[in-house]
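Internal tracking record. Fields below are filled automatically when a chain is submitted to the structure queue. Please do not edit lines marked as system-generated. If the sequence contains nonstandard residues, flag them in the REMARKS field before resubmitting.
Queue: standard
Priority: normal
Entity type: single polypeptide chain
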Amino acid sequence: MRLIALLLLLMLPVEGFSWPAKPVRIVVAYPAGGGIDVMARQLAGKLSGPWGQPVVVENKPGANTIVATDAVAKAAPDGHTILMTTDATFSINPHLYARLPYDAQRDFIPVTMLVLLQQMLVAHPAVPANNLSELIALAKSKPGTLNYASYGSGSQPHLSGEMLKHKAGIDLVHVPYKGISLAVPAVIAGEVQLTFSGIASGMGPLKAGRIKAIAIGGKNRSPLLPQVPTFAELGYPEVETHAWFGLFLPAGSPKEAVARIHADVRRILDDPEFRQKQLIDRGYEALGSSPEEFSRFITADREKRGQAVRISGAKAE
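SYSTEM-GENERATED OUTPUT FOLLOWS
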């Protein structure tokens, strides 16, 4: 009789999955105050209501996003710890570091790519070149005399600069700075002639005439800078300047949590007011891609970045 009763219990329908069952952490792999942190806090404020739980942003900067990524990789796979990071973590770092404390492909579930942002190549106003062809001609006439700033070996500006050098056959000198916020001021001050800048951080100096835009990444021109041509239309589609923000869960997290996070975040990104004021006006392309789309994108992006890392000779610092 006991065996029959146990079998009957096992045949009863399983109760519906309930998530979240406790506060949710969004672990941001960068310091407070930057663009990705601002977006994390905006999302957290809009998600806590629908989820019926506090959504807390926790900044864990360090080691080129490795600190935060390792922490989330080792977190309980219950859907309550979300990693918010950039392409550096999953597209670039696997090529820069001989060993990582986690497996970037095996230990995470891509949930959604939030936004894609393109960087523009900018120059000091005194540089006697106003477009890419003039800049390349100048670099060829004076090899090794033009410098470009980045925020470290293997950073997006470094890879973009080295790919441009490779494809255009020019010699530019790489000058790495210690932080993302230092490169554009270095160009403004005349310490270096060139760098790659996000639209949000470069728009003010650009409008003030303290820097000038040479070209921008992506397939299409930015609606904020329609006068600036893309590297692709100028014949250099291999010069990838993009970065992206994305959400990830530890491997083994419930698929129901993955679906719910994606759906609710996509709803926020699709809100017309949020999309315009918080994304488009800041130079972001809103995506909200599905987990499957995001996974495919990362695979292709990792391969492209691997080529750029090999060409640059970049190594982890």
